[in-house]
Specification:
The chain is 44% helix and 5% strand. By secondary structure, it is mainly alpha-helical.
Length: 114
C-alpha cells in the first residue's frame, strides 16, 4: 500500500489481503496498525486497508506477481467448526458496523467512475 502516483505499478483497489502486504511503517503507525479487536485473523486486513484508503492513500495490487494463500490454515488448532464460524461472524459484524457506510460510498464512487 502506498501513496505512489505510478499507475503502472498495479491496479488501484479498495482493499487487499494482508497475506503478502507491503506498507510503509509511518502509514501503518498513522492509522493505528492492525486492530487487535478482531479475533484470530479475519477482517483485520480489510479494516487496515480501509483505514489507509480513508486517509486518501492508494491501495495497489501488483498484478504481475502471483501468490497462493492457503486461507484459514491456522484456524485448525482453535476448536470445532462451530467456534470458528462464530468467530468469523463476530468479525464480520464488527467490520460491517465500522465500515458499511464507507464501503457504500466507495461503491457509489466506483459506479460513477465507470
Amino acid at each position: 500500500m502506498d501513496a505512489s502516483t505510478d499507475s503502472t505499478a498495479g491496479k488501484d483497489l479498495p482493499s487487499v489481503s494482508a497475506a503478502c502486504l507491503l506498507i510503509k511503517r509511518e502509514v501503518y503507525d498513522s492509522v493505528g496498525g492492525l486492530d487487535e479487536g478482531f479475533l484470530i485473523g479475519d477482517f483485520e486486513d480489510s479494516d487496515l486497508c480501509l483505514k489507509v484508503k480513508q486517509r486518501g492513500l492508494r491501495i495497489i495490487c501488483v498484478s504481475k506477481l502471483n501468490l497462493t494463500h492457503l486461507e484459514r490454515q491456522s484456524f485448525t488448532g482453535i476448536g470445532a467448526n462451530g467456534f470458528r464460524e462464530r468467530v468469523s461472524r463476530y468479525n464480520a459484524w464488527r467490520h460491517q458496523r465500522r465500515w458499511s457506510d464507507y464501503i457504500e460510498t466507495l461503491a457509489r464512487v466506483a459506479e460513477v467512475a465507470k
